[in-house]
Write a structure and sequence with these properties.
disordered N terminus, Arc Repressor Mutant, subunit A, Beta-Lactamase, 5-stranded antiparallel β-sheet, about 325 residues, single chain, alpha+beta
């Protein structure tokens, strides 16, 4: 047993900590009352030879055993904001996000957005930590992104919603209903979707999974979690800004991209611009390479997300 100094919220107190090298969970005891803390690979506990506590989140994010999920102190949020600002790249920001939510008692964290290339595993359109491996494999291998109703609902709503509320909030297609059935069959519990909004249409959402525990999420905690997610998303948008600025399309490539985004086929674009279909095909392949995409829809989305295209330019009504 090692005696260290830690604190919960603003209260400083001596605590006993039992460290298990085979577990990511740490149990604290203070005043005879158990505390549960979760340490991740991204925020390891470090003990100095003098018994000092050197961890950003673990002590500050402790919660009373069997207490409410997602409870966070003002000090903890302030520390998170500071660490987000200090993140030098998208990968380090993701580690900060994961550590924060895990140590607030959230077992599973995912981040769904279009421009995820700079994040580990981001080419799948999302990144995650803590979800069952079987579900992630099924989600990717079966291309469940196509029928997942959560991204569409998050884009339409400005407020968070529980996964268990989806069937009440949306008129699901048969395929979307099948997705919900498959998710429930995976039996990893309920969670919450947190819509977040960024510049130039870079909107996304965070998924926070509670595991199999029955959890009551208080409105004030939900709002706190969404604020934290929004801060993280805006920082991510800032970090990828320089990368997006490097996309340099010629005037002709940009013109063809605009017509693609309006839903025009290559033959129609050729007729409008007075050039050959072959020329449009060649320019289209070139702009796909520059945008690092494989299809017209993704090209249009990335064009909007990067600021190359503006909604008002597309005459979409």
């Amino acid at each position: 047993m090692i005696l260290i100094w830690g604190y919960r919220k603003s209260l400083t107190t001596a605590v006993d900590v039992y460290v298990s090298h085979t577990s990511r969970h740490f149990r604290f005891r203070t005043g005879g009352k158990p505390l549960q803390c979760r340490a991740t690979a991204f925020a390891p506990v470090k003990l100095g030879f003098d018994g000092s506590f050197q961890s950003t989140y673990v002590a500050k994010s402790c919660r009373i055993a069997q207490g409410s999920r997602g409870s966070m102190s003002q000090t903890t949020v302030r520390s998170f904001v500071k660490d987000c600002a200090a993140a030098s790249d998208a990968a380090s920001l993701w580690r900060t996000i994961v550590a924060f939510f895990h140590n607030c008692g959230i077992e599973m964290v995912s981040y769904h957005l279009d421009n995820a290339e700079d994040l580990p595993g981001g080419r799948t359109g999302f990144v995650e930590d803590g979800f069952p491996e079987e579900w992630i494999c099924e989600y990717i291998d079966s291309n469940l992104q196509v029928i997942d109703p959560i991204p569409g609902l998050a884009a339409r709503l400005s407020r968070p919603f529980l996964w268990s509320e989806i069937e009440k909030l949306a008129n699901l297609t048969e395929q979307e209903a099948d997705f919900i059935r498959r998710r429930k069959a995976s039996d990893f519990g309920d969670g919450i979707a947190l819509p977040v909004f960024g510049p130039k249409g870079r909107n996304a959402y965070f998924g926070l999974g509670f595991g199999k525990s029955v959890v009551t999420v208080r409105p004030e905690n939900t709002f706190e979690m969404q604020c934290v997610a929004q801060i993280a998303h805006l920082r991510f948008c800032e970090l990828i800004e320089d990368t997006l600025r490097t996309i340099d399309l010629s005037p002709r490539e940009l013109e063809i991209l605009r017509w693609m985004a309006r839903g025009k086929s290559n033959s129609v674009i050729a007729e409008i611009l007075g050039i050959s279909r072959h020329t449009v095909d060649t320019i289209g392949r070139r702009l796909f390479d520059k945008l690092d995409v494989n299809d017209r829809t993704t090209a249009a989305i990335k064009g909007l997300g990067s600021g190359l295209l503006q909604i008002k330019e597309l005459d979409i009504v």
